[in-house]
Amino acid sequence: MLFILLIGVYNFSKGQAISFAAYFPLKNENSNLFYVSHIKGTDTIKGNNIYSCCRSLSIKKREIFYFEDDGDEGDTSIIGSNSFCHGVFYFDKGAFFFSPIFWKYELKQANLDYFEPLFPATISVDTVYKFQDGEKRMNYRFTGFEDVVIKDSVFKDCLKLTITQNWITAQYIDTVWFQKGFGVVKWLRGTGRLEEVNLVENTRDKNRRGGYTQANLPELPLGIF
After folding, report:
1. Cα separations (Å) of 43 from 106, 140, 171, 191, 206?
2. Which residues pair with 74 in a beta bridge?
3. CA distance 130 to 120
4. Cα–Cα distance between 155 and 149 in angstroms, integer?
């Protein structure tokens, strides 16, 4: 009886329609601390723990979002590699629109024609969503839900996304886990860089805006600590 029940739950999640906006909420100036470690020596970004800050700007009255390391506010900073989709984005009626903008100064010339829909308002497990930027071909596939353990914290029922980057001479596979109502909690890049959210030490000082603390955490599924 238990075996049959487990199969039924798996089939339900596979065909379930999911709102990606619920798992990737965007708010200007929201900042979160991430542990950074290096699983493989091929990682080219040798950094320590970082605050990842969500920022926004308005293009023709449309608020678009991007991420940058907290403190990197110059026009020559790289923003494309700071988000799982490698660019800037916004939601429109639940659909996720994306543009592969890499450098911050490129935002000055950006317009809404640069954006294309990447995910529909409701996504499905095991459906492949595709995007091509020049010679780089991207495949995005949501594979289901998993519990994620980071240090002493347990994040229940995280949405898992596998991203395959296909280049002419190489392939990289990223895996990202999203907590509903929170966003990215874990990101394993194909280069070997691992980023995991640090909620225990993710406190704000007088000069820092946004971010979650123990006092203002969103309501998360039981088992978070």
Report:
1. 25, 21, 14, 5, 33
2. none
3. 12
4. 6
Give the span between the Cα atoms of 206 and 144, in whole angstroms. 39
Domains of the chain as residue ranges with CATH: 20-197 (2.40.360)
Is residue 16 over pLDDT 60? yes
Distances in whole angstroms, Cα of residue 219 to Cα of each of 134, 158, 210, 212: 41, 14, 16, 11
- In tens, the pLDDT along 47-75 reads 667 888 999 999 989 999 999 876 656 67
Residue owning tokens 């990215």: 184
87 burial class (0-12, 13-18, 19+ CB within 10 angstroms)? buried
| Phi and psi, residue 113, nearest 5° | -65, -20
Report which of 186, 131, 187, 140 is spatially closest to residue 164, judged by C-alpha positions: 140
Return the structure tokens found at 131: 């995007």
CA distance 14 to 20: 15
34, 40, 51, 90, 135 from 163: Cα distances, Å: 20, 18, 23, 19, 16
Per-residue pLDDT tens digits for 143-157? 999 999 998 889 999
Question: Among residues 119, 141, 223, 125, which one has the least CA distance to residue 179?
Answer: 223
| pLDDT of 122 | 96
